[in-house]
Write a structure and sequence with these properties.
The chain has 140 residues and is an alpha+beta fold. 21% of the residues lie in helices and 33% in strands. It is built from four helices and eight strands; from the N terminus they run αββααβββαβββ. It has helices at residues 7-11, 32-37, 42-45, 84-98, and strands at 17-20, 24-28, 52-58, 66-72, 77-80, 102-107, 113-120, 123-127. Strands 1, 2, 3, 4, 5, 6, 7 and 8 form an eight-stranded mixed sheet that branches. Strand 3 and strand 4 (66-72) form a beta hairpin. The protein is globular. The mean pLDDT is 94.
């Protein structure tokens, strides 16, 4: 796909592939180092009409298969720490390229997150650990 005007400049990267799902743009770059080194212009990214932007590349070391970062400044989140919905897109994307259904992704956010992905037929399963940050009851 052709990236929207301003997307590549706002990310400050040299894309290999630009694609889009119904929510986000996916931008593949050549290396994990390029993903980690990216310093997006969040003001400019706010001008891109999309929920978010997934930046990704093949991993540079085991046990990870790919690395990513997720930016959503238009929704008030400059960079998300761990994005399950992005990995629902990244799973099939990397499964096709790497020829495997079970993958391990590393989200290279400041906090960092490991998210395991299993691509099965028309489903993507996310596996890993989660932390409950709120517990409560809803009375209607």
């Amino acid at each position: 796909d052709e990236p929207p005007p301003g997307l590549v400049a706002a990310l400050g990267v040299d894309p290999v592939v630009v694609g889009r799902n119904r929510l986000d743009y996916l931008v593949e770059v050549a290396s994990a180092a390029a993903v980690r080194a990216a310093t997006p212009d969040f003001t400019a990214l706010r001008e891109i009409p999309t929920r978010g932007v997934i930046l990704t590349a093949p991993a540079d070391a085991a046990p990870h298969d790919f690395v990513s970062r997720f930016f959503a400044p238009l929704t008030g989140i400059d960079e998300d720490d761990a994005t399950g919905s992005a990995h629902c897109c990244l799973g099939p994307f990397w499964a096709e390229r790497l020829g495997k259904r079970d993958l391990t992704g590393y989200q290279a956010s400041p906090r960092g997150a490991v998210i395991r992905v299993r691509v099965a037929d028309k489903r993507v399963e996310l596996l890993g650990q989660a932390v409950t940050i709120v517990h409560g009851h809803l009375a209607i």
